[in-house]
Amino acid sequence: MNKPRFAVLVLALSLCACKKDLIDTSRPTRPDPAAIPVTLILDPTLTGYKIPHTFEGLSYETALLTQDSGYLNENNTVLIQLLKNLGKGVLRIGGNSSDEIDWGGDDQGTDTLHRKLTKPDIDRLAAFAKAIKWPVLFGLNLGNSNPAEAANEAAYVRNRLQSSLYAFQSGNEPDFFGNIHRQGKYIYEDYQRDWRGYYNAIKRQVPGAVFAGPDMMPFNLRWLHNFTKNNHDKVVMLDGHYYNNGPASNPSIGLPDVLVPNNKMAAYLQGMSVIASSHGLPFRISEGNSIWGQGKPGISNVFASALWALDFMWSVAENKGQGVNFHGGGVRFVYTPINTANGVTTAKPLYYAMLAFKYGAVGNKIIQPRFLNPNPDDNYSVHACVSPDNATLVTIINKETTKDFSFTIQLSKTASNIQVARLSAPSITANTGVTFAGSTVNSDGSFEPANPEEYRTNQKSFTVTVPAGSAAVVTVR
Fold it and tell me: Is-above-0.85 flag for pTM?
């Protein structure tokens, strides 16, 4: 795909792309004749689930606390600004390393490659959490089968984080413990016994501690069901992981693995929603990204991953999920939303998807679009919501690589003002040059949307064209 396709910014209140911010309302509404027409109907009075302000989040390995004291640090001003750009959120500390690193307290141990987690590590985390004003979902080491040590760790973490602590988790993907952290097969009943032992030990030492779980692998609804049945009165949230495909080492994995919908995802999210709601609990994707195994170069770190991430966040929200924590951190994580290399912190393509979701979804009530002429072979998605000030926001994601679409949007009331903020890049495989609302993130981490495309109208119907390999957030007032 070349740059001109991304330069086609057509709203069918005019005949073609126009550089003017304001369009003369006397001009006729015509779709782009080169784009495939799609018609949808929106009724902003039929609102549903409200997307939480803390929906967006990041997930980091516990090892990051022991290996890089300058990263999750109150003096890392660029990272702090990048998180502040997203508004409120949830920070998750865990990952595989949470079951590999022991609590040392005042002693970091003698193994410099695998040192223990210490009080100074938690002190820095507490200061960082206070600086970003995000609550922390904190993972404890279940892998070493040491509930007494976990209780000591939990006591210090809670004492230092105070109101910045969201909840504790015990174990990362415990349904994969067999022959890794445990000898032989490890079934749910084994996990339940271990989890309850940790819960009791921690509650004895930290009576006010709250928990979430089971932080399981993708698609394992059986463990989620059993965990919820046994522990619904002992947790404040259910959570699990999601990766669209993997491992990254699989040579057959390509762009379709992030552009083409994963049929297993819908059933998984629906299942999580049903299990959680049946016990009056929220659920969250506590760790997730595109391709597991730290991500695949040319897929997980390019613009295609941003289109996938934006669509995925909407899918979680439409199933009444509390949010998504995208995993990442250091340079070894190809899919990281924010990368730091050679002392420079930068926003990657997936981060721009988070910006688009923040501006187009967070804090708003979902409405369901109705399509008049859908073609199941066309790879696009449309999501809509209503803001507290009664604006209607429509997010359109075109994951086709060669097809442009002209979306005619029919409203139940007359629109007077339309703004279009686009998520775009030089190509779907670009890992730089990504913009949202005409802007890029500055070197100091700051971000401000540029003036969006803006159009005045007095109609109940309008058309907006979304080129191949791009997305748009349309605000209607």
Answer: yes
